[in-house]
Design brief:
GO terms for molecular function: 3-dehydrosphinganine reductase activity. By secondary structure, the chain is mainly alpha-helical. It is built from eight helices and three strands, in the order αβαβααααβαα. Strands 1-2-3 form a three-stranded parallel β-sheet, with helices on both faces.
């Protein structure tokens, strides 16, 4: 919570304290929050991480509405949802990540293979900026996250209303099959592990 949520909310609070006493600017002031694909998909191994990213998504939704109190175009709140991207912390995380998590997210491979498969931080940043330039409230940086986002969007703002709605329908048909597969893999992993060790560990 301290690393992922409190650092976000206190930074936003500090900016708003300055902005709310300053004269309004001709163009909106933008608040860009960073959540994660994990906000839409709970995987074993991310139990300390996922709830904080869900909290950031909820913060974006609530903050967007509350700031309408100051006018339609005074503030714009955005939230981006990157998945894995290449960084030092990603490779450090790989060293500590449970085997089951790697299997489910598709990162059970060598560093060289990961470097070919996973996008760079710069590439992800470019996609986020493109989404901002288009005026998106919620920004997914890959098709998988776009599906998950529209599967769980609820009353959150849509960008392409009809397209987002259709993606939500598609996701509702597709993601249940992935969830069943993930559940099956988790059970098998647990059975194999518990066969070796009587203690239940991830």
């Amino acid at each position: 919570m301290e690393s992922n949520y409190y650092t976000t909310i206190f930074a936003v609070q500090s900016c708003l304290k300055l902005w709310l006493v300053a004269p309004q600017t001709p163009s909106p002031r933008h608040i860009i929050l960073t959540s994660s694909t994990a906000a839409f998909l709970g995987l074993p191994g991310y139990i300390a991480y996922t709830p904080t990213k869900v909290a950031i998504r909820a913060l974006a939704d609530t903050l967007r509405q509350e700031l309408l109190l100051y006018g339609k175009d005074a503030f714009k709140v955005h939230c981006c949802f990157p998945g894995s991207f290449l960084s030092e912390s990603f490779f450090q995380e790989q060293e500590q990540k449970p085997g089951l998590t790697k299997v489910l997210e598709g990162t059970s491979m060598s560093q060289e293979e990961l470097e070919r498969k996973i996008p760079s931080a710069r590439e992800i940043a470019r996609k986020i900026v493109r989404g901002l330039e288009k005026g998106k409230t919620y920004i997914a940086v890959d098709f998988q996250t776009e599906l998950l986002l529209n599967n769980m969007r609820g009353p959150s703002p849509r960008f392409w209303t009809v397209c987002d709605f259709l993606l939500g329908l598609l996701a509702s048909c597709v993601w249940w099959a992935f969830r069943i597969d993930f559940d099956r893999k988790t059970r098998r992993y647990g059975e194999a592990r518990n066969g070796r060790d009587s203690r239940c560990q991830v």
